[in-house]
Fold these 3 entries.
Entry 1:
Amino acid sequence: MARATGPRAKRIYDDASPDDGVRVLVDRAWPRGVSKQQAHLDEWLKAVAPSTALRSWYGHDAARFAEFTSRYEAELTESERAEAFAHLKALAKDARVTLLTATKELELSQAAVLVKLLR
């Protein structure tokens, strides 16, 4: 069986898997109810998360996802976020990377946007 490659997104509340590769939390805030031991993280990359203002505006409203994606992609060009995103790209180049988030709707999250950009 071929080894799984490419970036993917997953909820932090899902069980860790050997298939996950490098596990990176991409939320700014630590997820509720998860200990650092349970998370099985390799990194917590807060700097790549969307700004508090953008997250508040978005509110995980599906109707705003396209605009959120556009605004978030623009934020990723700002220096600190750009450095963090470059780090993610470097990780994804050499290994399977699983981006973790606490968001309930994974397909409407910043992790989904990052996976798309990393591919």
Entry 2:
Amino acid sequence: MAVHVKRAYEAPSAEDGVRVLTERLWPRGISKERLAVDAWLREIAPSPELRRWYNHEPEKWDEFQQRYRRELQGPRQQELLAELVEKAASGALTLVYGSRDTGRNSTVILAEVIRERIARKDR
């Protein structure tokens, strides 16, 4: 059971397992073949309003994390989270994102939430 995050511009590998794009927008300049994702879950990404508010401004990171975690409490997001936890339970799961910032993006938060759910499930 492994949850990885990988930038869309990195080459896919066999260790990735199931690859899921977790962005509302398709990464620029990448074909479907090159991205090689098994699913695209647009609805799990932050809302357009939250994305615009954050605007990848590092000083907003802490607040962005809190706001995005609140959005993940929505009914549809909870369904999608359950799907992702199930995928992770059956093997490697790689969440694919397009952001240039590898440490401060919504997919990093999403991976943390999935890992937290798996840890609670395993207790």
Entry 3:
Amino acid sequence: MTLGWAIVSTGRHPDQKMAPAINATDDARIAAVVSRSKARAREFADKHSGANAYDDYAAMLRDPAVDVVYLASPNHLHTQQAVEAAAAGKHVLCEKPMALTIDDCNRIVDACAAANVRLGVGFHLRNHPGHERLRDLVAAGSLGTISLAQANWVRGVRGQSAPPLRPPDQQWWEDPAMAGAGVMMATGVHCVDLLRFVLGREVTEVSALTDAAADAPLEHLITLLLRFEGGAVGTVITSRRTPDWPSQDVAVYGSLGKGIVSGSVETVLQGNLSVTTDAMDEQQHFGPGAIALYARQVEAFCRAVAEGIDPPASGLDGLRSAQVTLAMVESARTGRRIELAS
């Protein structure tokens, strides 16, 4: 069955990644595009072979050709839009963060469960085959007892002491009420979710240092120290102001060896897997693939709808991400280590 997708937002990410990914998937097509501007929605739809264009979200939800609503709207709008989509019987794939508070995350999860529609979150790094392989190795015990896991996603422009200015259509990222947090919401949540995915364990404690200040509350650089179930320690570094960082990597160190996927924490399918233990020496190269991670995400979501199962990143994963993000904000503000409720 081919699912009709509605894309909510005509920004850079839907334009460059998700619309092409939907069109590259056999079981998906763009049934509708929603923007505050009807002309912008029509232009986007025409560019990506979309059927209908709307400037009215409620009208889109009444479109019988729409089966899935993909939310790439500003973060503070996700909750109401997701709840309304579920009430209309539409499946929901929501960009991260799923919502800005735990209560709102629970509202979305409960609404989708009550309507028996699938709920997913756009953690595209789960779809990288190198990350999947690393998760399998951890689960099989091939690396032994895990002591340390690390992930980083670091950017910047050389010669600029401050983060680069965002284009006009991304200025909402600088508004705390709309974004919720700074670089944590953009890239940090991906690193945290990736460590959760690879280790198959939940975060129990969070400590954070950021560059946020009273007159600049949205952070552009974070260092996170995490403790996972079972005692493994995790570190995350994410930044918009560090141009010379060597590589965006995820690494796991255990009592029997290590597994590293270098250059993979990105929006493009790329990187190199290196696994070294006494029993194995495995090397793999991936990419390049401009939309491959997102095409795999769309394929997995379509499969989840067809089979009535959770997608690879579920509403629960969105909730866990929000818990860590809020703990990060509290830890950075108070200087304390924050324990997470199970």
